[in-house]
Write a structure and sequence with these properties.
Arylsulfatase, C-terminal domain; binds calcium ion; 10-stranded mixed β-sheet; Alkaline Phosphatase, subunit A; 19% strand; globular; alpha/beta
Length: 453
């Protein structure tokens, strides 16, 4: 409780909507020329629109771990996207966002895709969520996988809390049903503070839209799917308004990583940004992010770099919740969102990928790319109708430096032109390697913590 003597305010509700593999340029308010997203566009006009918001990693499980713990996922032993047989989870020693808010009197619900543990010990209901409706891992980890059907013999199961209630064969109604469950949760909790987490399994392939949306845009199934997600956001906002909750509710909409470009017409777009999911070029990690909180936030467009690790400390600040003693990497970005400062609290943002490999660092306007291989279509078209094409692997042979203000497409390597900047970032990289390790250079991290086993 606050000791300031101020009249205590009703704590705000938090609604966090996460799309899966949605690219930077997939919303009309972020530059899509053929997908219309009126509800999200209105949210961006009324609230805060972030234009340099980053997923912590360009892959599902790791990116989600960052949102829910405030740490770089590799700090807490979490890497990659987990398959159905994966038996680890977020270590119980970590305080999740759901646990933090639950400790502060919030009701907590997750409706959608978890992807942070497939064994019961690590289900969402063991990590701070009162309620769960959805799937435990990605919607393509099933026997209808277009390339590797034998890799996923398990049934893709729809869960209610800890109980499987249905094998999913047709996923067409999933977005709609997740929205229905979310609205039910809002109505059941309208008299108490709540945290509603809606990680949609779409637009991750295989794409599915309900009969109300399938074929309706005339722009292809991907556009239909995004249109349905936008409509879902509209329905959630409407439910909040109907229950007089809108003013004191923080709604966030973002994506867990950039588009899966090898799927071609079933993938999103990163717009001008280079590459997509599975790389730490801008297209893999820079994603849309919109925040609406009518009571406290005015409209603002913010281009300062922030990341998925920032939600936990920011929500702790806004809700006066207690964080754990564990060291985390995220920062409270409330002063930036509310206009009390125009600077990001981050000196640098680290981009790790695969198993603890340091691929990139952003420092201010600059981004350095470190030597490794990354996947690319190298200008070829992606696949069609749900069948991907193969990526090629490109090397980065030496450190490369880009100025994201003059060159947001990361095309012009200016490493030799700015040796002082390069040295500064290389020093940051050395510190990162000392703290968190880097498999590419053989560095053991001094601060990494254990995954839950
Ligand atoms: Ca994803």
């Amino acid at each position: 409780m606050s000791c300031s003597g101020e009249k205590s305010e009703t704590p705000p509700n938090i609604v966090f909507i996460l799309a899966d593999d949605l690219g930077y340029a997939d919303l009309s308010s972020y530059g899509s020329s053929f997908i219309n997203t009126p509800y999200l566009d209105q949210m961006a006009e009324q609230g805060v629109k972030l234009t340099s918001y980053y997923a912590a990693q360009p892959v599902c499980s790791a990116s989600r771990a960052a949102i829910l713990t405030g740490s770089y996922p590799n700090r807490i032993g979490i890497h990659n996207a987990w398959g159905p047989k994966w038996e680890s989870g977020i270590n119980y020693d970590e305080l999740t966002l759901a646990e933090m808010l639950k400790n502060n009197g919030y009701k907590t619900g997750i409706f959608g895709k978890w992807h942070l543990g497939s064994v019961e010990k690590y289900f969402p209901t063991k990590q701070g969520f009162d309620e769960f409706y959805g799937i435990l891992y990605s919607n393509d980890m099933w026997r209808f996988h277009p390339e590797y059907p034998d890799a996923f013999p398990e049934d893709l199961l729809l869960y209610q809390n800890e109980t499987p209630i249905q094998e999913l064969i047709d996923q067409s109604d999933l977005t709609k049903n997740i929205t229905d469950e979310s609205i039910k949760f809002i109505e059941e909790n309208k008299n108490n503070p709540f945290f509603l987490y809606v990680p949609h399994p779409q637009p991750h392939v295989p794409l599915f839209a309900s009969s109300d949306f399938n074929g309706k845009t005339g722009e292809g199934l991907y556009a239909d799917v995004i249109t349905e997600i936008d409509y879902s956001v509209g329905r959630i906002i409407e439910a909040l308004e109907k229950n007089n909750l809108s003013d004191n509710t923080i709604i966030v909409f973002t994506s867990d990583n950039g588009p899966w470009l090898s799927y071609g017409d079933h993938a999103g777009s990163s717009g001008i940004y280079r590459e997509g999911k599975g790389t730490t070029w801008e297209g893999g990690v820079r994603v849309p992010c919109i925040i609406k909180y009518p009571k406290k936030l005015n409209h603002r467009v913010i281009d300062e770099p922030v990341m998925g690790i920032d939600w936990l400390p920011t929500f702790a600040n806004i809700t006066n919740s207690q964080m754990s003693e564990n060291k985390i990497d995220g920062k409270n970005i409330w002063p930036l969102l509310s206009g009390n400062t125009d600077k990001t609290p981050h000196e640098k943002l680290l981009f790790y990928y695969r198993v603890n490999e340091l691929h990139s660092i952003r420092m201010g306007d600059w981004k350095m790319q470190f030597p490794r291989k990354y996947r690319s279509l190298n200008g070829r078209d992606g696949g069609k109708d749900g069948m991907p094409v193969k990526y090629e692997m490109n090397p980065v042979d030496a450190n490369e430096l880009y100025n994201l203000i003059n060159d947001p497409e990361e095309k012009i390597n200016v490493y030799n032109k700015y040796p002082k900047i390069a040295k500064q970032i290389e020093d940051l990289a050395d510190n990162a390697r000392f703290e968190l390790g880097d498999r590419l250079t053989g560095a053991e991290g001094a601060e990494n913590r254990e995954i839950g086993k």
